[in-house]
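Possible regression after last week's pipeline update?

I re-ran a chain I had predicted before the update to compare outputs. Posting the input and the new output here so someone can diff against the archived version. Not blocking, just want to make sure nothing changed silently.
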Amino acid sequence: MQKPCQLYFLPIGGTAMAPLAGLLHEAGVAVCGVDSALYPPMSEILGGLGIPVRLGYDPGALPADLGQVIIGNALPRSNVEVQAVLERGIPYTSQAAAFGERFCRSARAVVVAGTHGKTTTTALVAHVFTSCGLDPTVLVGGVPRGGRPWRLGRGGWTVVEGDEYNTAFFDKGPKFLHYNPHFFVVGNVEFDHGDIYPDLDAILAAFRAGTALVGAGGQVVANLGDAGARSVAGGHAHVTWYGLDAGADLRCIGWGHADGCLVASLSWRGSVFTVEAPLVGRHNLDNVLATCTCALLAGLDPGAIDAALRSFPGVRRRLEVLGEVGGVVVVDDFAHHPTAVRLTLQGARHRFPGRRVVAVFEPRSLTAGRSSFAAAYEEALAEADVAVLAPVFHRHRLAAGDVLDRKGLVETLGRRGTRAVAVPDDGDVLACLRSELRPGDVVICMSSGDFDGLPRRLLGSLGEGS
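New output (post-update):
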């Protein structure tokens, strides 16, 4: 007989909410939830665990005798079920506060923050700590290939992705402020989330608040090669730097690619050792360096760290190859910020040397759809041979003058030698993309959302045409 629901997730399908629900379920807590819709991989995860999920918000369907409601940052105060929770006086909290209270307060928490790369770095740290026997509890904002985005451990360590986005409608501070960091990783800091942060200074202030939580027993682990990270961490009393520069505590003294893997020679406290990971690209070198720094500070042996890195399975939607049909490789990727788009395309060049790279990009987030990033997207998409620009997802929520000018972007990319096409607002992205493809292409589908299932629909379409 199923236990009455103790914790109700409102909504349950997000990349942080669903893993927390799974973690609490594994810890023996009866959880349930609601959402407007569910998509893979979170729908698969929740379904596999048998967690009750109702689709469609209905205040009359709230379970009776709820112990607490966990409200995600995707919902405004005006949501009908949120209003019912407030009116009935049902206890509520946020995803970040719930996780921090249960899994960070009494543990040594490794909080991985940064504008880019935090999901991969969190998964890397979790994999290395687990492989080396530290038995951490883990919460990742993405799904490791062949695994789950959480782990319930008992080794006294917690590894968590530290999101800088706001916590909930009733808590506008960053999520990572709830995680009581022992190690606070600052991989990079750039302007992002223009819907909640007015400028770069506001984001820098948020990250500085995160580093301020690290006490004398912990360390800020920061990227010496990133200007934002230097600005955030430079004034802290306890910083361990990583990077390519001479001032780094963990210094990379050489790196490259071999057989599709990153290989790096590292110097740490007078010793030199080599690590290898099944990743590509300069950005993943930074992710590996951050991981190694955390592992070394935790007392792990360089040889054990290298062995663990070599077996890293990767993360879904990070240059994830879904298949190849008719000579066309289809890749799914979460990249949406201009820097992430540029680094993803550069990584694809290493992964698929000599092949034509076709980027199909959806400006999905409110930030991605803004005109202020036009020049940065030009630089990023110029890394592709062909760029297909999907409609701005939130164009109706932006003022006309603030919407990304895709037509202008097509023109500037063309002048730089990249063929570019803007799909009409009412057009068919798949049909437009298919008309641009030829055998030998690598298609990188990039969006911070589901992209209407485009990558898998493309595979199916290519199969029908073969």
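Follow-up from reviewer: compared with the archived run. Residues 97-310 form a domain with the UDP-N-acetylmuramoyl-L-alanine:D-glutamate ligase fold (CATH 3.40.1190.10). Marking as no regression found.
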